[in-house]
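Newbie here. two chains, one complex. Structure please?
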Amino acid sequence: MLLNIFNCSPRGERSNTRALARPFVEGFMAGGGEAREYPAADPAVFDAAVEAFGTPSVAMIAFPLYADAMPAAAKAFIEEIWRLRGSCESTRMLFLVHSGFPEETHTRVMKDYLERLAARMGSPCDGVIRVGGGEAARHANSRKPGRTYMRLWELGRLYAERVVLDAAILAKLAGPRRLPWPARLLAPMIVNRLVWDRELRRNGAFDRRRDRPLEAGERP
Amino acid sequence: MNVTILDGNPDVERVPFSFMVGGVARALVGAGHEVETVVLRERVVHRCIGCFSCWLRTPGLCIFDDDHPAILRSLLRSDAVVFASPLVAGFYTALLKTTIDRVIPLVLPYIEFSAGECRHPLRYGRRMPAMALLFDPEEGTEQEDVAIVSRALERFARNAHSRLLFARPLSDDPQEVRHAVEHL
């Protein structure tokens, strides 16, 4: 079985999308599958990616949430493959959507949209993998795979064997509906101070972090 | 009331679309509102590349020197923003999405909790404009598709400290649309 991964993250090779797709692909290959990756947000690869989508395969469209939906590059890719609707019944569709925020509520609408998209395309849909809290995935230590990595790997392996996504693993990856109270209290302190403030200081931008450069201006 | 209309139709030959957007704009102006219509296909707006420079290097400013900051200024002055777009593959266009993706300079990188969920605080401290969607359905559009794209915009509005006023077909009576926008 051939798995084509269409990475629609504008960050391309440095993306969290790629970091999250990788363990799934590795598990899929360990289960006997074959995989190819297309950085579909790259204009140089775009046409080849659209062509590959139309070939008999499993097509995994993967992207992060930008402003609570697919990034413009992913939407452009979807608009292109939309032209192939009705002629892709041999392309099974699969999706990977991730959000920086941990709650699964942020990715829920995209799940409904993507399932509906596949139905309207006339392609079988094998499901939507949702990952909550995926912002730091690209910084994860590949020598010490964490829970998300292991779950994605196992999901990929099982998918290669059964052509079905394991529902229990999917639910764990999607994240909680709400974080528990202690986490709600701690998360802002940890993330805001130890991640964002530290990065702002490193860039010499900490004192300007709340600047409002567009405050006064003229209409376009 | 200040209203910004973002015309996300990429097809210059889709004349009825522009005509209908113009009808809504005229209805609003006729009622005494100030309206700015931004035809996005005539503007240069680069896609967000997710570099976070607008948060972490030049706070509030994107690395791209294009037409988008002017659009953001217009949003900051508006009471309502109307997204006008054809539906393509059951969603608003990539052209409109390009502009929406670039709103992140209007929020801070920090996280806060609202109704038990994470979101980003506003950079400019004031409420974002209320949002509305005027869509032109494509062949095969069903109520389910409209519900999904509406929910997607509701979620965006919620995380932008705003709300979705309505999602209506662009073919609706412009005076009814005007009335709905006035229901802020």
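Moderator note: Residues 143-159 of chain B form the longest helix (17 residues). Helices of chain B lie at 15-30, 53-56, 68-77, 94-101, 143-159, 174-182. Thread marked as resolved.
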